Amino acid sequence: xxxxxxxxxxxxxxxxxxxxxxxxxxxxxxxxxxxxxxxxxxxxxxxxxxxxxxxxxxxxxxxxxxxxxxxxxxxxxxxxxxxxxxxxxxxxxxxxxxxxxxxxxxxxxxxxxxxxxxxxxxxxxxxxxxxxxxxxxxxxxxxxxxxxxxxxxxxxxxxxxxxxxxxxxxxxxxxxxxxxxxxxxxxxxxxxxxxxxxxxxxxxxxxxxxxxxxxxxxxxxxxxxxxxxxxxxxxxxxxxxxxxxxxxxxxxxxxxxxxxxxxxxxxxxxxxxxxxxxxxxxxxxxxxxxxxxxxxxxxxxxxxxxxxxxxxxxxxxxxxxxxxxxxxxxxxxxxxxxxxxxxxxxxxxxxxxxxxxxxxxxxxxx
Amino acid sequence: xxxxxxxxxxxxxxxxxxxxxxxxxxxxxxxxxxxxxxxxxxxxxxxxxxxxxxxxxxxxxxxxxxxxxxxxxxxxxxxxxxxxxxxxxxxxxxxxxxxxxxxxxxxxxxxxxxxxxxxxxxxxxxxxxxxxxxxxxxxxxxxxxxxxxxxxxxxxxxxxxxxxxxxxxxxxxxxxxxxxxxxxxxxxxxxxxxxxxxxxxxxxxxxxxxxxxxxxxxxxxxxxxxxxxxxxxxxxxxxxxxxxxxxxxxxxxxxxxxxxxxxxxxxxxxxxxxxxxxxxxxxxxxxxxxxxxxxxxxxxxxxxxxxxxxxxxxxxxxxxxxxxxxxxxxxxxxxxxxxxxxxxxxxxxxxxxxxxxxxxxxxxxxxxxxxxxxxxxxxxxxxxxxxxxxxxxxxxxxxxxxxxxxxxxxxxxxxxxxxxxxxxxxxxxxxxxxxxxxxxxxxxxxxxxxxxxxxxxxxxxxxxxxxxxxxxxxxxxxxxxxxxxxxxxxxxxxxxxxxxxxxxxxxxxxxxxxxxxxxxxxxxxxxxxxxxxxxxxxxxxxxxxxxxxxxxxxxx
Lengths: 366, 556
What we know:
The complex is a heterodimer of chains A (about 375) and B (about 550).
Chain A: E1 2-7, E2 12-19, E3 23-31, H1 37-41, E4 49-53, E5 57-58, E6 77-79, E7 82-83, H2 96-103, E8 106-109, H3 113-123, E9 126-131, H4 137-142, H5 153-156, E10 162-165, E11 168-170, E12 181-187, H6 192-200, E13 203-209, H7 214-218, E14 224-227, H8 238-247, E15 253-256, H9 258-266, E16 271-287, E17 293-304, E18 314-320, E19 326-331, E20 336-339, H10 354-365
Parallel strand pairs in A: 3-4, 4-6, 5-7, 6-8, 12-13, 12-14, 14-15, 15-20
Antiparallel strand pairs in A: 1-2, 1-9, 2-8, 3-9, 10-11, 10-13, 16-17, 16-18, 18-19, 19-20
Helix pairs in contact in A: 8-9
Chain B: E1 3-7, H1 19-33, E2 37-42, E3 57-60, H2 65-75, E4 79-81, H3 86-98, H4 101-104, E5 108-109, H5 114-121, H6 123-132, E6 140-143, H7 146-152, E7 160-164, E8 174-176, H8 179-192, E9 198-202, E10 208-216, E11 222-230, E12 243-245, H9 252-269, E13 273-281, E14 288-294, H10 299-308, H11 312-320, E15 347-353, E16 374-380, H12 383-393, H13 413-421, H14 427-436, H15 441-448, H16 452-472, H17 478-491, H18 495-502, H19 510-518, E17 520-524, E18 539-543, H20 548-555
Parallel strand pairs in B: 1-2, 1-4, 2-3, 4-5
Antiparallel strand pairs in B: 6-9, 7-8, 7-9, 10-11, 10-13, 11-12, 12-15, 13-14, 15-16, 17-18
């Protein structure tokens, strides 16, 4: 079946269907990772986006039961050069096409994804549509709301609180397992691997919906607070920022990705939209304290405005080596810090796992 | 101006070829960019590095301690860079060190230090270091008596390899699949071994072979330039293997598990420059073993450089004189730094080139000693297209996946079974023939241990080319032929080949060929999958919709 990628500027890329027939609108972004499509497809930070994979052969090692980062497929649609129909890997249980069909996601293959990428690179992230119905697609696309006008966080956040320990997800409440500490996680679009990393360090995570009040969270007496990644324009998250403000200083706090932007706003700083964002597994980040550079996994379209931190209690701790954007901040006097990249990897390099260890050391020894 | 002495790689021999000339030339230019005076010693004048403009002074002299000392006396170099001339350069640097010459003339050894090189190359030191950092190396047991042998019967994993010590050509060795076989073969081996000693080793035959090209600077910043997966599983020297970059059958967790191990190793070795790590990966679990580490610019790094656009030797030379990865410019984009990891938006296939057409009586079987004298590398958007391009680049008689030696009239099924089980320079064609004869993927996999992903891709090419052949005989309907042509073109079969396969039938489909030809474009190798604008004109051809080159000429 024919399928199309239609861009807001009128460009049309014809291809063939992969996944379920249908139509989906989203912000078209590209990811340059050469592995990790299963993690990307289940990462809530891609909600509302159409992911264009720059690596041309997607699905080579299939889809397995273990590498999902949330319970759902999260992007609006996918765009690939070639979807592999005969994957090979010992854990593979299905093809990417089967996965998309099962979960009702539309995708298009046979696209010159490098051409799409270059278009986004020069023109910036753009709204687009993947559809099997090309007639009047552009009109329908132009009638939809822009990515920045959606509140995605509340749709991807958990409905009710749950806990995650060494045996995975379980119910809130008492546990027989002895943990080194319990932390509260504010779920704005959490990836499972953050919880898995904590569990590996014998930390129990209590995961709360994004709309939970500071009082409710503190009533569980966590040793530390984690601000999760998540989708959408962070400037729309006023109520969540207020929660973070109330929590700031009460417990050691660590933020990842959107968590970095929430912490920035909690101290009075501002964020802005990047031209096309950072999405991939190869982004170099320089630590301003010791001068070392770490290769990181990234997925964000907004960044902290360093100017806006002037006069606040926060300062920049890390910078992106490619474009100089803010990759980490720390708050003086509140035991709170955050990073813009993904120490949990999944997908991507494991080089910044040390951040979990540091945070856990802080809450268990401090 | 400080002088740096660079040792070249000497003659081109089997197993060590022109890649070191490529690396050495890059390094010399890179050092001169940094303001050093470069003195080059090489015994081989038939190289690019000995061209006048590469170095400031070139000595074409024997690569011996004696001659090098004379050059040192005359040039009084501040530093010596030995890690770019392959094994020859490394060995000479060790000899100069042992002879006390490095110390006597106060020369600074640049790049990875000799101690680190020893640790990587000495079998026992290396195993000790791997144990220290808890990276797995294949288990092995030394057996010197029947009692020793009996003691390990229930300990070793089966199948295992038995290697008697001090026997000619490994006589008396072999593979044991169970304790009975180990007992029988082991006792025979003990008798045959002059010193009554044998080594029993875990067998990794059939495991995936994967390599990582990694770099580290003096501050400890580490990056992976690229990883590569061998189409030929463990058992064939990587220089004799068909190699694909990046890996195709590793999931993200597997890719990064092996990447993390590789970086841990170069950190433990304190490499300053480039390094190659070879790993064996169990195709049915997360198990892996470290097979080998090359603490220098190697054949694989030359391949990785060309495959990614990342100039490993150039960057390694700058690291050797104290620069850090975040200070060095990415010479391809010119807008980013060398401290990043290339993202490929294409597939690279390397096929070795063997000299058996010149040495007709040579033993074509491939194993752990490299026999290739060269290699071809092809880049395209898909594996199939890159593979076919590489086959055409080999300049052997076969321009596609058909080989006259394996045609049904010349090769029985039994002979074919041997040809896919026993690796030779012609196995790729044997695999294709087996699939052409309708053998199942599982059967071909069982005999060859080649991953089903590669076999499935080869099958795709075989199926479409066979369909075109059927069409030539008038056995396909018109719309089927049209679909076959488009499918073949999409897989990267050249229009010329499609026409040849179709014969006179091709004339009825002229319009389709015109259409296919318009899709021939050139894509850029830019190290970043299109994320940043790039300046270096390094292109590959592909069948796609947008031409990078046309845009460049339109812009300029």
